[in-house]
Design brief:
Shape of chain A: elongated
CATH class of the largest domain in chain A: Mainly Alpha
Low-confidence stretches of chain B: none
Largest interface: A-B, 74 and 76 residues
Structural class of chain B: mainly alpha
Strand content of chain B: 5-15%
Strand order of the largest sheet of chain B: 4-3-5
Number of helices of chain B: 6
Number of helices of chain A: 8
Helix content of chain A: 40-55%
CATH architecture of the largest domain in chain A: Up-down Bundle
Strand order of the largest sheet of chain A: 4-3-5
Mean pLDDT of chain A: 87
Structural class of chain A: mainly alpha
Radius of gyration of chain B: 21 Å
Order of helices and strands of chain B: EEHEEHHHHEH
Radius of gyration of chain A: 22 Å
Distance between the termini of chain B: 10 Å
Order of helices and strands of chain A: HEEHEEHHHHEHH
Distance between the termini of chain A: 12 Å
Number of domains of chain B: 2
Number of strands of chain A: 5
Low-confidence stretches of chain A: none
Largest sheet of chain B: 3 strands, antiparallel
Helix content of chain B: 40-55%
Oligomer: heterodimer
């Protein structure tokens, strides 16, 4: 809830803070540049919701092949086996290494899904701003921003294992197509999160 | 300083705006180690004590050196039935470039080198600041260094290496290499560097 003692918002005062160097400037026309660092000044990120949603949808589409296609192909003594993200987690779980199974499950499954749901929820609410839960939604955005890059974990693991296990007959590993899609999902969701403008959560207060 | 066309814009250096909820506050005077948070949404405000340039430069220089160690030396050594292999982070990026993996390998290579570019830019800015001059290309360099921040994933690489070690340890003998220790040191150095807000460098004047 907005209290009477709340400080005014920059757009009410007709000023804008530079996204890069945080200098507060007068904002009367659209093509202004920050006098200190030269960055373009924007009241809000350009086409924020459309870009966020577009990148999120692209990531969602790629998330399917990322999970269905093998991320790694391991061959041992002429016997080859494919592993997907989930089967990798399952293998750790079955051998009793729950801690490591949990780390991979968090980084590769939970974090991407949380990002999809959270960003979708934030965009949906930003289209129809409501007073209730604004602080909580801003916190949710901070969480999404913070957890973003940890999903790269699986890509690094696959890269390292494939670089290490190269013993021809005794055993060798090759990256599968799934990991390429998975890497794309992580990068797209990171871009999606950074195109979202959290100030939109706080806009449109006068309407309700 | 550079003169932009829009130099006529009126500025308010004594104000600060929360980047998450757009509220305007008077810029607080903070001592070292103090932080200001927005009273409305709880986000940390982008201000702080003046940037400690000596400390920043020392940490950035150390980061460059440790980064070179982390890239040059193998992260993990493995051995199985008398056969032996090791891999550096760079080799693991290259291992991904099989077939359709080329775009991913490029992205990972960029992510691996982001911390180096960042540290070099910080060295450039801070070395000039220490001798009381504005570095050539100050604004652009500082913007690039801040932009690279989310793409520098040293701590993710560190955790990834640990997971890979555990993953392989059930099939073969695994040993940590110099690269792994360097990664751990780099995580620490970066953490210490980012304890200061680099954006406070914008307030710096020669």
């Amino acid at each position: 809830m907005s209290q009477p003692s709340d400080p005014p918002s920059a757009s009410d005062l007709g000023v804008v803070a530079c996204d890069e160097c945080t200098l507060v400037c007068d904002a009367h026309d659209h093509a202004s540049r920050c006098p200190r660092c030269g960055a373009r000044l924007h009241h809000r990120k350009i086409a924020s919701l459309d870009r966020t949603l577009a990148l999120l949808c692209a990531a969602l589409v790629l998330y399917l092949p990322a999970n269905l296609l093998p991320v790694m192909r391991t061959s041992q003594l002429g016997h080859a086996s494919d592993s997907t993200i989930l089967s990798g987690v399952q293998a750790f779980w079955q051998t009793g290494e729950w801690g490591i199974a949990l780390v991979i499950f968090l980084a590769s499954v939970v974090i991407p899904c949380v990002k999809f749901l959270a960003l979708g929820w934030l965009v949906w609410h930003a289209r129809k701003p409501r007073r209730r839960g604004r602080r909580e939604r801003t916190q949710l955005y901070r969480v999404v921003e913070f957890i973003g890059y940890w999903s790269m974990l699986d890509v690094i693991v696959v890269g390292l294992v494939c670089a290490l296990v190269r013993f021809k007959l005794l055993g060798s590993s090759e990256p599968g197509p799934g990991i390429v899609f998975f890497g794309a999902v992580v990068i797209l969701t990171m871009l999606s999160a950074s195109s979202f403008d959290p100030r939109l959560i706080w806009d449109g207060e006068k309407n309700d | 300083m550079v003169n932009w066309e829009a130099d006529h814009l009126k500025t308010y250096p004594h104000l600060i705006v929360c980047k998450h909820c757009d509220r305007v506050f008077r810029r607080p005077d903070l001592a070292r180690g103090q932080r200001a948070t927005c009273t409305v949404c709880g986000q940390g405000l982008p201000c702080g004590a003046p940037f400690h340039c000596e400390r920043g430069l020392a940490l950035s220089l150390a980061s460059v050196l440790v980064f070179l160690l982390a890239m040059y030396y193998p992260v993990i050594h493995i051995s199985i039935r008398g056969r032996y292999n090791d891999a550096t982070l760079w080799q693991s990026a290259m291992a991904l470039s099989h077939g359709i993996g080329a775009p991913l390998a490029t992205a990972v290579a960029f992510i691996l080198f982001a911390p180096l570019m960042q540290s070099l830019m910080q060295c450039w800015l801070l070395a000039f600041a220490l001798i009381g001059k504005t570095a050539p290309g100050f604004a652009l360099t500082l913007r690039c260094a801040a932009w690279l921040r989310p793409w520098s994933m040293i701590e993710v690489c560190l955790l990834g290496a640990l997971v890979a070690m555990i993953k392989l340890s059930s099939y073969m003998e695994v040993q940590a290499g110099v690269g792994l220790w360097a990664l751990a040191a780099l995580t620490l150095l970066n953490g210490l560097f980012w304890a200061q807000n680099i954006k406070t460098l914008w307030e710096w004047k020669p």
